[in-house]
Model the fold of this input.
Amino acid sequence: MMQRLLLAAAILAVTTARAQQIDSTYANDYYNGRMALFATFPEQRGAIVMLGNSITERAAWPELLPGKKIANRGIGGDNTFGVLARLDGVIAMRPSKIFLLIGINDLGRGLPENVILANYRRILERLTASLPKTKIYVESVLPMHESKLPAYLQNKAGKVASLNTGIAALAKEFNLPFLNLHEWAADANGQLKAEYTGDGIHLTPIAYAAWIKWLQEKKAL
Done:
């Protein structure tokens, strides 16, 4: 009987592991193209680095922050694996500040929270160890607007909230400021304000303006 129970447990463990296979891919043509573009830029030592996915990439940061040296290091579709893989280029810039916003694409592809947070930990370990003089801001994953979302991102508000709890805990552990973007972006129901998005996830121009204003009020910019 005991042998049968052990065999059943082993089969269950293998089945569960196979069901939870981790998709760690990131280097598609668009990612590689953006990386090639970054490599052509002149040296940007001391810049403020905006690091993330399409939500970061789509902002006209230099125009929104005239007079500041800004490096947009957003890559559409990127995830925590992709950010981790491209930290060398960010570190080489010796930025004055880094604003890190990443994670929604990880949730979109169904990655377990513990995997996402393990990547976050590795990202923060590398950045803090390599850039002791850089101010690193850890930003929450933004809320989404449910009725406008594509199917693969629907019903993830609870996962976003849980992930943000984990991200906030890591920021505290590393003694880094945590910026809860829900403070300016969320409506009374906790969703991304309707006027701030067309597709439920990406931001409109007025949302970027509100984001900048909020960061300035927080004395982060």
